[in-house]
Amino acid sequence: MRHYYLVCLLLLLTTGLMAQEETEPVNEDVAKQSSAKDESKRSMVNNIAVNSVLSNGGAFYVSNPPPLMELDPEKAYLRTEWEPLVVRLMNGKTSELTGRYRLLDQKFEIKVDGELYEIYSTMISAARLGDDEFVLLPEANGTKIYQVHFQGEDYQLWSHHWADWQEPKSQNMFDTSDAKKTLKRDEDLLLLHPGGRDKVKNKKQLQQLLGLQKNGKEMKYVKNMRLDLRKGSDVTKLLEYMARSAQDQ
Fold it and tell me: What is the pLDDT of residues 142-191, one digit of tens each?
């Protein structure tokens, strides 16, 4: 029954993709080079053991990248291993799968019976990968995936994980090695507060957004616990402390 349900889900996704292709113009989004029905590209991945591909590098990616691009799985994915994935579709239905989060083009890959597929991010509203919760929001340059670290009455903390191609360093005339683009991975923290949503830039700005006094108990907690407010995990600890303090009052 589970296998039947997964097959139905994949048929639903494929139907949605075909309908989308009929109405939307073709662009250069790397994700649209690798739909589940593209047998030529799928076979390049499906015929190779996933663990071997990841450990050896190379053509681990669903799309076939152009030459002179050095693909690092540790930077292209949030985590390279396959994990339990629960997705909530736009119609409210959920499905339990096995997947991983691809940062480079903001997609969830899924694995069914040893074969790889991707779900277009426009088709899902939320997901849980392992123990981590995510929401998906349409934006001007495409749907983005945000990890939800903290949800409170007044504040929420999200982060956007991303990877992007970096141009190779300039070479002198004696350097005969191949110039390769490499991936850069980073994370942007976002604080949702009563006044809106802001990217967290530094400790001082976060302090202002939270309305904290320099010598207040919250900043003393930060100092005593040696929290690094550039890290999502440490900002989450501060927000949890603030929530507990509010309940005790």
Answer: 899 999 999 999 999 999 999 988 888 776 666 666 778 888 999 999 99
Strand partners, 94: 88
Q: Is 132 exposed, middle or buried (0-12, 13-18, 19+ CB in 10 A)?
A: middle
How do residues 90-101 score in pLDDT, each as one tens digit?
Answer: 989 999 999 999
Helix ranges (DSSP H) in the chain: 2-23, 39-46, 50-56, 73-76, 203-209, 217-224, 232-248
CA dist 200 and 229 (Å) reads 9
Torsion of CA 33, 38, 44, 45, to 10 degrees: 80
Amino acid present at 78: L
* Contact partners, residue 60, CB within 8 Å, separation at least 6: 45, 50, 53, 54, 71, 73, 76
Q: Kindly tell me the number of DSSP H helices and DSSP E strands found in the chain.
A: 7, 11
CA distances for 8 relative to 2, 3, 4, 82, 86, angstroms: 10, 9, 6, 21, 16
Neighbours of 136 (CB within 10 A): 20
Torsion sign over Cα 11, 12, 13, 18: positive
> How far apart are the C-alpha atoms of 17 and 29, rounded to whole Å?
14
CA count, 13 A, side-chain hemisphere, 77:
20
* Alpha-carbon span 207 to 230, nearest angstrom: 12
Calculate the alpha carbon distances from 29 to 92, 122, 161 in Å: 27, 14, 18
Please give the angle made by the CA atoms of 7, 51 and 96, to the nearest 5 degrees. 30
pLDDT exceeds 60 at position 106? yes
Of residues 217 and 1, more confidence is placed in: 217
